[in-house]
């Protein structure tokens, strides 16, 4: 039985069981197994009536929701290749991706977005709004078609951090295999259970990791609560009360900073205990703990940490984090208060995952061992190579790039990394991002960017510069507040430089007036830096930065 057949079977066997929930300003919109199957059939009837058939491509452009899930399942059930797109991306970027994959139809939630697409692309295929797709009556639900492992399921576009997004083709074999791995890890996390998992999701389903979590939730006994307003994330979390959910480092960093600031503002005995407990936990990790350290941690575990855990989620068994390396200090913070953070590493081309933390053996700063059946090694240039059943068959209509990515039978990830003796991996940067100074020294920017950002909680992003230059410099953005000043940046930079070799020291910086955003075209849909776009947008400022320092 394929994963899709398993999902349909599970929904059919438990028609009254709650499966999905949309959270709208505290109001819950639920969907049971039978209700979801009915919506899936509505969408299937619509697609078939419009002449779509197995192998056709269909774009799905909508925010997360029950209807998104139903339409995704409906397309796969008919053998249609789903092309999920992020609703917050610019119309021009969306049109470029759709022109690349030439869909037979576009399914869109927003009439305004549909009009923009048609304006930019007069020859666009027919656009159908979700309201129309789900307006009619449905026929009785029927099983999905059976997929062979080689059958294409989806084309997911890469984030385009260093160039044009590419369409990653994933097949049924990739997903069948991956869902077995994710379910096994979640079984380890949850242990024996008699009630469904409670899961929360705020990341867009157009991203591979979010989509795999969705499918994993649908294949196991669970209730998946969907965020509908990222600005209300804290309130939605309280409503969802999840056991676990998928995160990006930026969110966990901000939550940590907010908690620490609240404790500082509270002051008094609680703040003193919290501060001493943090130092004690740090010494414990370094195996330098004393009796007094145990006392402060015991006090914090009794008086402070339970309240923090309750505020973050009373039912949390763990936080799952991916998309970028998480600061060790942040991972240790959550571990200290009693909430394990399980890191995952992977790319769209690896069906979202290469490694997953073992819930019973987490190494802070590392992203866990390779999933079962996955081989990983390091090339001579430090690049991580991977092969296994989860590796994609190729990029859509890009045979040369496919051959390059899969050269020698290994997928060339483009990431730099290392593995320890127990098989736990650490990601250290991107091959393409390496800065080569004109002295010949090579510098991975990510560790330095992260280190400076940790000293500047007022900063939104730090971007290191210096390729073919004589020294390193940085662009720094505010995080939306007013606390970031040139003096603060210089102070943090001096502190960081004190422990670095000369060629890794940051010699100059430019404080930009506005944060980077997705809408500005400087961030990807999962919050990563679009380095080429940033370099182009601020080319004049960058030139002045280096000229001023060398003058």
Strand content: 15-25%
CATH superfamily of the largest domain: ANL, N-terminal domain
CATH topology of the largest domain: Rossmann fold
DSSP, total strands: 24
Strand pairing plus helix content: what structural class? alpha/beta
Oligomer: single chain
Strand order of the largest sheet: 2-1-10-9-11-12-13-14
Given the structure, what is the number of helices? 19
CATH C-level class of the largest domain: Alpha Beta
**Share of helical residues:** 25-40%
CATH architecture of the largest domain: 3-Layer(aba) Sandwich
Taking all Cα atoms into account, the compactness measure Rg is 24 Å
User: In one word, what is the shape?
Assistant: globular
* Number of domains as seen in the coordinates: 3
C-alpha end-to-end distance: 69 Å
**Low-pLDDT runs:** none
Quote the average pLDDT.
92
The biggest sheet amounts to:
8 strands, mixed
Describe this structure in words.
The chain is of the alpha/beta class and 551 residues long. The chain folds into three domains: 3-171, Rossmann fold (3-Layer(aba) Sandwich), CATH 3.40.50.980; 249-314 and 318-430, ANL, N-terminal domain (Rossmann fold, 3-Layer(aba) Sandwich), CATH 3.40.50; 434-550, 2-Layer Sandwich (GMP Synthetase, Chain A, domain 3). It contains 19 helices and 24 strands. Helix 1 (3-13) packs across helix 2 (33-49) and helix 10 (249-266) crosses helix 11. It is globular and about 70 Å long. The N and C termini lie far apart (69 Å).
